[in-house]
Amino acid sequence: MQELTHWINGAHVKGTSGRFADVFNPATGEVQARVPLASAEELNAAVQAASAAQPAWAATNPQRRARVMMAFVQLLNRDMDKLAEALSREHGKTLPDAKGDIQRGLEVIEYCIGAPQLLKGEFTDGAGPGIDLYSMRQPLGVAAGITPFNFPAMIPLWKMGPALSCGNAFILKPSERAPSVPLMLAELLKEAGLPDGVLQVINGDKESVDAILDNETVQAIGFVGSTPIAHYIYSRGCAAGKRVQCFGGAKNHMIIMPDADMDQAADALVGAGYGAAGERCMAISVAVPVGEKTADALIEKLIPRIEKLKVGPYTAGNDVDYGPVVAQAAKDNIERLVESGIEQGAKLVVDGRGFKLQGYENGFFVGPHLFDHVTPDMDIYKKEIFGPVLSTVRAGSYEEALKLAMDHEYGNGTAIFTRDGDTARDFAARVNVGMVGINVPIPVPLAYHTFGGWKKSGFGDLNQHGPDAFRFYTRTKTVTSRWPSGLKEGGEFHFKAMD
Ligand code: NAD
């Protein structure tokens, strides 16, 4: 049995708490490794070492720090296959999807190569006689990131890239369900030239998260995961005076207007609803066709597409559309919610229950499900299922469809499929959701824009990656300087306008 480690001061370090979690291969259901769960003492020691390493890293000029990121990009590309295999083995997603996970993280590292430009301050020459005003963006010190299982490469990269590029030291607490890739990323950063101690990877569970919240040296926390934990970390972190951004769960609606291309909409829904077994925070989990005719046409096109989906292990390569879910508990939860949907009166038009794969009977596979006639009072509508289950809510009008998306407590992503520019514009302007797709089902913004949900999908005021990340991981210092020329005046007792 492989025993995983922490990554402290540039080396693998064994856990000393005596507590471990099992790491599964979701395709086979077998335990493939165990990961140490750090104690508060281990976490605090890692933070202390990071704090000692940070000033020299902050004093390294931004271009040199950016060169580390440049080398890191090359190494990520070099090891893409190896990383993807490790990722799929622990997460279960297909290999092409694992490469997408790494790629979308790598693109944020590419963006970070622009740190010297992004960190430039503002300057006002001659704000008053002999007076100049300028601002600097300075690192916070030690920042921490707490990440979920579903993007084991992308989300740690979204966090560590900007934090490190800004001159911070960074403590990453990855998901205990997919810890191997974050450790591999740390190895690659060392090879790219990152000084020891500047990045620490501490594996753990609630105990290490609480230790991060309680640690006075940690200045900022970036969290991604489920909403109850996001809210917990946001409230406790803010109460402790830290800078905190927390991104939570989702229930993403896709509205299909009567004028939409139905084949395009059906293809988009199948990819966005069932890709990665529905374990994406930007997955579409609710289809909202407008009008009965649209709904009937859509369901007719969806059923054969969903029945054709190939579910299997990542080792089957390109021959698989999606893999298992991450854990037996996730599978049980999905199955419970499917039963509740049936009991509460939704119509299960594609029934994936009882799905079994020969040779992988103990894997955490879930067959694809499609519900029709779902209503907003049902649990399958209210809750995030995070599995291959698509719910269809029939809306009588565009306004009714829009209201559904607006009234839902989550506001991560949403999409509209239409040929009408006016409807699309109206939707983008009015919907209270953070990321909007127009004929694009999964509108994940690229690295140089920012990513963040609204309502219960995001707590805090700055988004992830893009320019916001450089604001989140730095603080602004504004300097007003005067170099007296000529006669010196006496002291000033009034708060003066600059004249
Ligand atoms: P999770 O909330 O269970 O875990 C996330 C992190 O929090 C992990 O590192 C975990 O160890 C830690 N954690 C878990 N329980 C904790 C507790 N009681 N106290 C302190 N820390 C705790 O989430 P998950 O199951 O790993 O990920 C799936 C969730 O993440 C979904 O809800 C999904 O929508 C969401 N997600 C959101 C985004 C986004 O950007 N909004 C992106 C990806 C995933």
From TrEMBL:
Keyword check for Cell membrane: no
Q: Which Pfam families match?
A: Aldedh (PF00171)
Q: Which GO terms describe its biological process?
A: L-valine catabolic process; thymine catabolic process
Q: Which organism is it from?
A: Roseicitreum antarcticum
Q: Which residues form the Aldehyde dehydrogenase domain?
A: 13-479
State the taxonomy lineage: Bacteria, Pseudomonadati, Pseudomonadota, Alphaproteobacteria, Rhodobacterales
Q: What is its EC number?
A: 1.2.1.27
**Which GO molecular function terms does the record list?**
methylmalonate-semialdehyde dehydrogenase (acylating, NAD) activity
Coiled coil: which residue ranges?
A: none
In its keyword annotation, does this UniProt entry include NAD? yes
Which keywords does this Swiss-Prot/TrEMBL entry list? Answer: NAD, Oxidoreductase
Query: Per its UniProt entry, which superkingdom is the organism in?
Result: Bacteria
- The protein depicted here goes by the name methylmalonate-semialdehyde dehydrogenase (CoA acylating)
